[in-house]
Amino acid sequence: MRAVGLLSPGDMGHTVAKVLQEKGMPVLTNLSDRSERTRALARSAGVEDVLSYEELIRRTDLILSILVPAEAQNAARNIARALESTGARTTFVDCNAVSPATVGDIAKEISAAGSRFVDASIIGPPPRREDTTRFYASGQHAEVFAELSDFGLDIFLLGRHIGQASGLKMAYAAFTKGATALSTELLTAAHAMGLYDTLVEELQHSQPEGYRNMVRAVPAVPKTAHRWAGEMEEIARTFSHLGLTPKIHQGAAEVFRFVDASPLADMIFETPNRERLLRETVEVLAKSLGQERPEPQDRSSRR
């Protein structure tokens, strides 16, 4: 494999790029529609910026799509057009947190352009340490993606069917991020009712592990709420297609949108005291209740 193309070198993507390049695999990207923050992340990872998607296709053998869910299909369409115009067969690997139905639509576009498609998902944080981030892959061409196991990625093959890898991600994130949404909402409700301290005391007594998870997870929500809302909608779509209720995770999406529309969306906490961070986070959210909520700001600068 000559090189890997990346869409896009954001929080997760640029860290994946660092791992690949440290192991000797060149990574290229096209930053023509990316924010200055993403450009800076690409530079920090040593990712080469090429002038067009067509050049990206010609110079790479595999494209990794690692984006927010809302951008996944549009990115695939851009690559499909580039594949058609170049006649190349660069393998496209969709690593986004989207439903099996969405990934099936993306697969059709890439296949119609005459190229190969791999359904993949990422479980875990950006791979800054070994054995923290696992990639799952499915589809007839998943073995092509698995070649990157030789360049620092932990890749596990699930089967030959498109939708298996994305389905696993949906089920996993339904629990992890769904639980974070629930924790955010219930703590905000308790604070609004003047019961926060009593609830925390009870949680520390009877649910100590659950409370520790809240202390760790809830203060981080403002940084990711704009991405996770779309992911919850994809989970809801997955469950609906299976005949299960989509309402639980549609509600989770609303919680994340509420956080993203709050003053926390652009607030940075500098204190290292995690418990204080939790209280501060919940206090701001509780104060936001009952206020007319503005539309979430354009977060493209975070891409």
What does this structure look like?
The chain is an alpha/beta fold. It has helices spanning 11-22, 36-45, 53-59, 72-86, 100-112, 142-146, 164-192, 196-206, 208-217, 221-241, 247-260, 274-288; strands at residues 4-7, 27-29, 48-49, 62-65, 91-94, 117-123, 134-138, 155-159. The protein has an eight-stranded mixed β-sheet, sandwiched between helices. Strand 7 (134-138), helix 6 and strand 8 form a beta-alpha-beta unit. Helix 7 (164-192) crosses helix 12. The radius of gyration is 20 Å and the shape is elongated. It starts with a strand and ends in a 15-residue tail after the last helix. The relative contact order is 0.10.
Q: Compute the number of helices.
A: 12
Low-confidence stretches: 296-303
Counting helices, strands and paired strands, the structural category is alpha/beta
Biggest beta sheet summary: 8 strands, mixed
Mean pLDDT: 92
Termini separation comes to 28 Å
Strand order of the largest sheet: 3-2-1-4-5-6-7-8
Instruction: Give the radius of gyration.
Output: 20 Å
Helix content: 40-55%
N to C succession of SSEs: EHEHEHEHEHEEHEHHHHHH
Give the overall form: elongated
The portion of residues forming beta strands comes to: 5-15%
Instruction: Write down how many β-strands occur, each being a DSSP E stretch of 2 or more residues.
Output: 8
